[in-house]
Automatic annotation (TrEMBL):
The keyword Isomerase does not apply. It comes from Danionella cerebrum. Keywords: Coiled coil. Belongs to the taxilin family. It holds the Pfam family Taxilin. GO terms for molecular function: syntaxin binding. Signal peptide: none annotated. This is Uncharacterized protein. It comes from the Eukaryota. GO terms for biological process: regulation of cell cycle. The keyword Hydrolase does not apply.
């Protein structure tokens, strides 16, 4: 009996070390010295779990596994019973913490997916703007070509008129020559502008190609992220199923241990009764011996 008590105290101390930070969020383990302190610790954990005040869980959504475990903890607190296997209690706490960590990972992945979706929408918007700019540039190019054709026709007509009026005075010829020079300069300016416009159009095409490549890479990245999330969902679902199965097995073991404990307590009471009777017989015998002496 003493050896069992010593083993129980040692396990309780280990339980306190494993459960540190769950109730106070500190780096020091809570002091759990007796079974009464363990009752208080279990009650504190169950109350904080019910109120959602467990440190480090303010931004987490309720865990289905945790919601399934809470009724068992509450039932244990209401009945003021103590988990006779602290090792099983530690395993339950570790499984609970593992489930919370998995939910945090799912939230991080969801945030990454939302960020990728935002980037995709932004790139699609930039792609649409680039297409509109390209369309406006093509329309401007058509109008410029029409103006050049019209200008060339006008220039040809002017040159024809200059040839027809070759007999005009020198002043008029000089003015026509100056006008032709101006027109040539204007044509040169148009050619330079056309070259600049072609360069701009090539630059826009290059930007459009870069945007298309970036959009394709983003789509590929998003596909990989979705595949990774699907694999992790399957992994988390499998772990949750295994944890639920283990929890049911632990509940069954707890029930069996309680039955064994009840049987041992009945036997202990019988032993106490027998011991009391033996003490009475011994006392009576000693009194008789004293009377005889």
């Amino acid at each position: 009996m003493c050896q069992s008590t010593a083993d129980m105290d040692e396990i309780i101390e280990v339980c306190g070390l494993e459960a540190r930070g769950l109730t106070e969020g500190s780096s020091s383990p809570p002091v759990i010295e007796t079974q009464e302190n363990v009752h208080e610790f279990v009650g504190l954990v169950s109350v904080e779990e019910q109120r959602g005040e467990t440190p480090g869980r303010e931004d987490l959504t309720p865990d289905p596994l945790e919601m399934e475990l809470n009724p068992s903890i509450e039932k244990t607190q209401d009945q003021k019973t103590f988990v006779r296997s602290p090792h099983q209690f530690i395993q339950m706490l570790l499984k609970l913490e593992e489930s919370r960590s998995m939910q945090k990972q799912v939230k991080v992945l969801q945030k990454q997916q939302n960020q990728v979706l935002k980037e995709k929408i932004h790139l699609q918007s930039e792609h649409s703007k680039a297409e509109e700019n390209a369309q406006r540039f093509r329309e401007y190019e058509e109008r410029r070509k029409e103006a050049m054709v019209h200008f060339q026709i006008t220039l040809n007509e002017i040159e024809a008129q200059m040839e027809q009026h070759n007999s005009h005075n020198t002043k008029l010829r000089q003015e026509n020559m100056e006008l032709a020079e101006k027109l040539k300069k204007l044509i040169k300016q148009y050619e330079l502008r056309e070259e600049h416009t072609d360069n701009m159009f090539k630059h826009k095409e290059l930007q459009q190609q870069l945007m298309d490549d970036k959009l394709q890479r983003t789509a590929e990245l998003m596909r990989k992220v979705e595949e990774k999330q699907q694999r992790e969902r399957e992994f988390l679902l499998k772990n949750a199923t295994e944890s639920r199965h283990k929890c049911e097995m632990m509940k069954e073991q707890e029930h069996q241990l309680k039955q064994q404990l009840t049987l041992y307590m009945d036997k202990f009471e019988e032993f106490q009764t027998t011991l009391a009777k033996s003490n009475e017989v011994f006392t009576t015998f000693r009194q008789e011996m004293e009377k005889v002496s």
